[in-house]
Amino acid sequence: MAGLERFGLDVGIYGSLAEPGTIIDLARFAEDTGFGSIWLADHVAMPVRFDSRYPYSPDGGFPAPVSEALYEPLATLGVLAGATRRVRLGTAVLIMPYRNPLLTARMLVTIDRFSGGRVTLGAGVGWLREEFEALGADHARRGRATDEALEVFKAVCAGGEVSYRGETTRFDPVHSNPGSVQRPHPPILVGGVSDPALRRVVRHGDGWLAVALDRPMLTERLAALRRLASGAGRDPDGLDLVFKIFIAPGEARPGPWGGRDIGSGSPDEILGDLRMILDAGIGTVIVRYRGDDAEAQKREMERFAAEVVPRL
C-alpha cells in the first residue's frame, strides 16, 4: 500500500492557475495533507511563436496558452521554502543550460540552507530551442552544458574553494561558503527518456525522473536504465525512481505515445495508471492537475489524497 508521503504535488508555475496565492496555498495544502514533496517545472520566458515540439503531447503543442502567467522556478522555490516547514522542494525539471551554472548552484545551495536541507534537484536539458535563443543559451550543446552544470553543482555544494574548466563553463577559484546542508549534495534526479538522458542518470544522478510514459515505454526504459547502470558498475536498485503524471479526470485524452494519455479518463482508469507506475518500482509519484479551475484543482487533489491513495 502506498502512503501519501510517496506522492509529490506539482504546484504549477505556468498556466491559468499560476497565481502567487494559489501556488502558496497549494504548497501549504500539500504539506498539511501529508504529501511528501512539492515540485516546480521550468520555463523562463515563453516565445510568442515557436516551431519546437513539446514532447509530452500527441501533436507537439504546449498544454497551456503561452501568453498566460509564468513564474521563474528558483525564485518561486525560495518563496515556498519560507511558506512551508516539512515538505521537500523539488524541480521537475530545471533546465540546466538556461542559467549560469555557478549562479544556479549558489541559488540552490541558498534554498537548501534556508529550507533546512529540503531541496531535490530534478535536472534536464530542455526542448524549446526558441527559449534557448531568447536566453542566449546554446541549444546545440545543451547536453554537454547540462553535464558540466551538474559537476559544478556538486563542487559548489561541497563548499570551500571551487574552480572549473570545461567546454561550456569555465571560472577561476571562488569561495563557495557555506556548502549545502545535504551531503555530499542535494539529491539529483535526471529527467528525460532518451539513451543520452539515461546515461546521464548513471554518470551524474542519484535517480531518474520520468514523465508521462505509458506502460510499454516505462518498462523498456527501466530495463535500459538497469542495463546501463550495471554496465557502469552502479547498483540499479540504488537509483531513486520518480514519475510525474498529469491528472486529468473525465474524458480520456490521446497520449503522446499513442492510445489514452496516462492520468486521464475515469477514476478507475487513473487508479489503474497509478498502480502500474507503483508496480513498476517507482518510489515517488508527482501529480500535476490539468485544468483551469482553482477550486476544481483543490477538490481533485483533496479527493486524490482521501479517496485514491488509500486504494493503492
Mean pLDDT, to the nearest integer, reads 96
CATH topology tier name: TIM Barrel
Structural category is alpha/beta
How far the N terminus sits from the C terminus, by CA atoms, comes to 6 Å
Give the C-level CATH assignment.
Alpha Beta
Assembly context of the chains? single chain
- The total beta strand count reads 12
Q: How are strands sequenced across the largest beta sheet?
A: 1-2-3-5-8-9-10-12
Give the CATH superfamily. Luciferase-like domain
Number of helices: 9
Q: What amount of the residues lies in strands?
A: 15-25%
Q: Could you walk me through the main structural features you see in this protein, from its secondary elements to its overall organization?
A:
- The protein has one domain: TIM Barrel (Alpha-Beta Barrel), CATH 3.20.20.
- Strand 6 (160-165) and strand 7 (170-176) form a beta hairpin.
- Strands 1-2-3-5-8-9-10-12 form an eight-stranded parallel beta barrel, surrounded by six helices. A two-stranded antiparallel ribbon has the order 6-7.
- It is built from nine helices and twelve strands.
- It has 312 residues and is α/β, with parallel strands linked by helices.
Short structural summary:
Helix content is 38%, strand content 19%. The chain has 312 residues and is an alpha/beta fold.
Which key phrases capture this entry?
12 strands, 312 residues, TIM Barrel, alpha/beta, single chain, two-stranded antiparallel sheet
